[in-house]
Amino acid sequence: MTLQKILIAGTWRDSNSTRSFRADNPATKEALADEYPISSWEDCDAALESAATAAIAMRSLTGDQIASFLEAYADRIEQRKHDLVEMAHAETALPKAPRLGDVELPRTTSQLRQAAAAARDGSWANVTIDTKAGIRSCLEAIGPVCVFGPNNFPFAFGSISGGDFAAAIAAGNPVIAKANSSHPGTTRIFAEEAHAAAQSTGMPPGIVQLIYRTSHEDGERLVADPRNGAVGYTGSRHAGLKLKAAADAVGKPIYLELSSINPIVILSGVLEERGDALAAEFASSCLMGTGQFCTNPGLVILVKGERTDSFVNSVAEKFSTAPVGTLLSRGVEKSLGENLAALQKAGAENLTPNTSASGIGYCHANTLLRVTGSSFLKDPKAFQAEAFGNASLLVIADDIEQVGAIADSLEGNLTGCIYSETTGKDDAAYDQIAPRLRVRVGRLLNDKMPTGVAVSSAMNHGGPFPATGHPGFTAVGIPASLVRFAMLQCYDNVRPHRLPANLRDKNPTGRTWRMIDGAWSQGDVGA
User: Fold this and answer.
1) Which of 30, 144, 228, 271 is deepest in the core (most CB within 10 A)?
2) pLDDT at 19
3) Cβ distance 117 to 146 under 8 Å?
């Protein structure tokens, strides 16, 4: 067994800690060979000190320089594709193809290149120039950003490779990455390539740093430290709220992706029109990836009736006969079982009681639950517990008015969807439900399952709490995601040669959009 080193201040070095951990192979439940340090506060302190120094150095970098680093890193990731896919498969049991190699890795490098393009263009900074008042402002880097990655997307949301990382770097900040304990080896490979890319493009030594794990106390101390600028976190609701409390106590911005059950409302007309096809579509979406997507449809609301009964029976059959996939970790297996038991204790009926947990490694039987709309409304909090994995809860309402009441009782979610009949029979019901669901979700879909999250400039991967901690921001979608890791800087009567390049009279790139005296322009001031 090898105790892996941490990356601090541009050097791979031994941790100061004497404690360590090993990741599991979820398919075999066996511990993998390598050991990783559980960092002490001394490691965190060293990373913060280096990041603070790097943050100052990065203020002199141009958008082109930052973009060059991100592009070089994306190139190096593609060169390490085999190693990354093999390691991630061993640590997560996610399929090598198409999931890891053909879908998630290209998405990851695409995000990095999109972030590079945004850094090079500079329009994301919302440059505003008022020549009469002598005041100019723009968004600039906020300082070191701590990124905590999730277990379910080791590439595209990883702490040293994913969207939060790309956005923080593109906005001009160094990143302290805290690996997810489920896939430390994957994160280490990414760190190796990020470090090499930083060296080849002349970046400050502390632009990218990696620790694998800390105590809860040190994690909270890390996010609250005065040297830290902001935090990006994707993970469990419980741990995220602990970090949020620590950051909030000292006024540090922390952007959270916590829990989401992604409600789907299926109206009566669409069941008559294509109920069988919809049952197959829903079952496929819910069980895809063993249900371990942050946008997995965990709650379905329908109005009672014969068509609904037929739909429910069809979905239950599909759940019962579908293969059982592997869960990401022992913790996911445990929490899924506990949360499903809690839902049943609250009154939900298990429609798949005879389905066995016949998957490989960590697993749980495909589970479909049902509850009446009246029961749901008596205790909506209990029935909105996130059962992260291959499970979903059907809520059968008495009528469309009760569907609206259920929508009003929902917590915040990343997504919400309404399925409706194509010729207009459901339009009145849609118009009644959509405005109420709209305010509960970050992204509203119509006749489309929510499991895909496109990396589009128009995407919002956010929403009201507990989907996220700040509903006005997105974790996916460039350049909007960069804004989270920036602060508005105003310059009043500052001499021209002392202004940041993008606030000077000459447009530094010739293509950056700037608001000059009330009009958007790509030209120079006075042109």
Assistant:
1) 144
2) 95
3) no
Domain boundaries, position 409: 263-446
Q: Residue 189 corresponds to which amino acid?
A: I
Whether the predicted pLDDT of 176 surpasses 80: yes
Name the catalytic one among 146, 286, 294, 363. 294
Same domain, 167 and 226: yes
Catalytic, 294? Answer yes
Q: What is the CA radius of gyration of the chain?
A: 24
The answer as to whether 454 is a domain residue is no
Query: Does 27 map to a domain?
Result: no
**35 is an active site residue:** no
C-alpha–C-alpha distance, residues 395 and 300, integer Å? 6
List, in order, residues 6 or more apart from 326 with CB less than 8 Å away: 26, 27, 93, 290, 359, 360, 361, 362, 363
Q: How do residues 12-55 score in pLDDT, each as one tens digit?
A: 999 999 899 999 999 999 999 999 999 999 999 999 999 999 99
d(CA 287, CA 290): 5
For residues 94 and 121, give the distance between their C-alpha atoms in angstroms, rounded to a whole number. Answer: 36
Question: What does the mean pLDDT of the chain come to?
Answer: 97
User: What confidence tens digit (pLDDT) does each residue in 202-234 have?
Assistant: 999 999 999 999 999 999 999 999 999 999 999
> Of 193, 257, 411, 421, which is the active-site residue?
257
For 56, the token pair is 């100052």
Q: Would the pTM of this model clear 0.90, i.e. be above it?
A: yes
CATH of the domain at 230: 3.40.605.10
